[in-house]
Structure formats: structure tokens, C-alpha cells
């Protein structure tokens, strides 16, 4: 039977020396975060918030919902983030195993031949195992047993390290949620842009047809010597100009479709859509809630908060490196030079029990550097968290202001379009009766077309603002 027990007498001396060093642990620069936010975006204190609405209820277009569903399954960047989440989850699993006892099995076999005129050789050849039997030569060795090691987490270093890894995993989840929010918003914005381009293209096609009819009238008036060749050429040039704009918008439609297909993780193909529904789509008519809801609803703010919690724990882990570490090692098994005696108890039984204390005394520069780095990262995480809160608030404030101004702009442009539409009929009638020249007709048609195109563009911006305020408030990920 073999027994191994380490002498623990020096432990008291080590602990006494370690206590003197604890007072020399440096103090890190720890910063507290500022979570204060204005009470409201305006005079309204309504806590109703559109970010609580599921994106399937917020966007009612069935084609858009189908596109978003496809993107959430196939988008490559989102799938990459999902794998990063899996990596973070495995790191939590690894950290959890560090503060639990480690138990394993071991076994071995060996063969040893020592020289006769050595210390071990003399011992073996002058001693008998039992009467009439000497040590075998060469001497075989067989062993089987179990071992256990356990670092006592007295200062919660290992548990804090595991918690820090858990917060970083949750941070990666919020990073994925933020990616989903941006993905939903980008697809919705591109989809509304596609609808606007379709309507602008249709507007150009209608206008080209009107201008071609006007061109025919001008040609007849030239034959009747009522206008010159210059008027004909001016009307022709206007037709060609708008035909060229048609090709530009067609190219923009293809580019927008390809952008959506890329977000959906597929090769270019037509995007199903109902362009006629563009005028019926409603702009933002919901509630923005109160600023403090951003701390809960915005994934990027939650991500920054979790990273800050992890950084706070990292400082505690780094500080615990200055303190003594305690560990226990134990083993139990059987060992013999012959397999016939291997499992005999208690003759072949072996066991060991040892405790260790490790106290850093000299050259602690590496520990200090790690501690100061953890402190600097904690301060950095505080600034990042405060910046994310400020950015979220300004983002919402900007979108609310944009929505208010765009609504007023849309109303004015609608009146402008209505006035110019009436002026087209007036100018055409005056031209036929020779009371207006062709340039007045051309300029009126051009102004009317531009105002219609601007009206469609303003409507697109309103729909984009509806998407962007939803994203700014933290909607779209749940």
C-alpha cells in the first residue's frame, strides 16, 4: 500500500506572507455609467410604443412579409452571427467547467531495467519480495485508478469569469437581435423604394404618351404655318429626355431588386410586389413612447449594457489574481508489478491527497498589467454604453422631426401637383387657340412631371421614416 500526503505546515507561513501583500493590491479606475435620459421626446408622456408591435403586424403588405421571412432564414450575415452565438455559448460551458471538480481515469503499463551497481539495483537485488523470490528483472509496472483536481473558488474568480462569459453570450444574442432589426428595416426600405420607382416609371410612361400627342399637334400646326421647326424640335427633345429617364429608372429598379435578393441570400430574380398599393400605404401614425423604454427595447443598448456587466466582472476576476489560490488534488487506484496482484486490496491499493496554496509575491507586473487593462476596458465599456443611449435618443428625435416635416412637405407638394395638373389643361387650350406659345406648354408639362415625381419621392421618404422610427425605437427583432 502506497500513501502520499503533502505536509501542510508551510501553508500558515504562506498565508501570513500573502496577507502582507493583499494590502498592496492596486486600486483600479472604475467608472459608473450614467443612465439618465430626458423624460419625454416632446410634451407627450404617452407610454404607448410601436416597438412593442410585432413586425408582421406593423408591415401589412403580404409580399413584404414574405421577403422578410425569407431573409431571416437565408441571410448569410445573420447566419454568421448565429454561429458566433454558438461559440459564445460554448465558452460559457467551458468556464462553468473550470470551477467544478475535474475527475478522470488513468491507467498505464511500463517496463524498467536498472543497473545492478546502482542505488536502485542494489536495493532490488538485496531484498526479497517474499521468501525465495527477488524483484523481477526487468521490472514491469501496471497501474489503474482515478484522479481528481479541484481549485477552490474562494474569491469567486472562476464563478465571476463564468458570469462574464454568460453576459458576453447574452450580448451576442442582442447583437443578433440588432442585426435582425437592421435587416427587417433595410428590406422594408428597399421594398418601398422599389414601389416608388415603379410608380415613377409609370408616371414617366404616361407623360411620354401625353408629350407624343402634343408633338403630333405641334407638327400639324407647323404644317399650318402656325409654329416653326424650332417648336417641333423642342417637343421632340422633351420626349427623348423623358424616354432617357425611363431607362435610368429601369436600371435603378434592377439595382434595388438585386439589393433585396442579396439580403435574402439568393441570386437575382424578380421581386413580387403590388405597385398599385403604393398610394394606399399609410405613413407613421403610432406612438414613440418615452425615452427610458429605449434601455429595454433597443438591442444595441442592451448589448452595450451586457458588455458593461461583463467588463465589471472582468475587473473582479483580474483583482482576484492578486490573492492566494487554493487547490486540492486526490487520487485512488491500484499499482503492482504483476497483473496477478494488481487488484489486491489493500496490498496494491494506492491513494494520494494533497492541498496547495499559491500566493503571488514577487514580480507581479503581469498581474498588474492584466488588472489595469481590465479597468481600462471597464471604463471603455461605460463610455460605449452611454454613447449607445445618446445615439438611440438622437436617432428617435431625428426621425420624429423628419416625420413631422415630411408630412407637411407632402401636403404642400400634393397641392402643387393639383395646381400644375390644372395648368396643363389651361396651357394646352391657350396654345391651340394661339394665345400661348409652345414654351409655356413645355415648361408647364415639365413642371407638372417634376412635381409628380417629387410627390412620389416624398411619399417614399415618409414610408422610409415609418420604417426608421420603428427601428430607432427598437422594433422588429422580437
The profile of the biggest β sheet is: 5 strands, mixed
Q: Which range does the strand content fall in?
A: 5-15%
What is the string of SSEs from the N terminus onward?
EHHHHEHEEEHHHHEEHH
Global structural class:
alpha+beta
Q: Low-confidence parts, pLDDT < 50 over ≥5 residues?
A: 1-6
Strand order of the largest sheet: 1-7-6-5-2
The number of strands is: 7
Q: Count up the helices.
A: 11
**What's the overall geometry?**
elongated
Helix amount: 55-70%
Q: How far is the first residue's CA from the last residue's CA? A: 64 Å
- Rg over alpha carbons: 40 Å
Arithmetic mean pLDDT = 87
Please provide a written account of the structure.
The structure is a single chain. The protein has helices at residues 10-22, 55-58, 62-74, 76-98, 119-125, 157-223, 229-263, 294-297, 299-320, 365-432, 438-472, and strands spanning 2-5, 102-112, 128-130, 133-134, 139-152, 325-336, 349-358. The chain is α+β, with helices and mostly antiparallel strands and 478 residues long. The protein is built from eleven helices and seven strands. Strands 1-7-6-5-2 form a five-stranded mixed β-sheet. A hairpin with a 2-residue loop joins β3 and β4. 61% of the residues lie in helices and 12% in strands. α4 (76-98) packs antiparallel against α6, α6 (157-223) runs antiparallel to α9 (299-320) and α7 runs parallel beside α11.
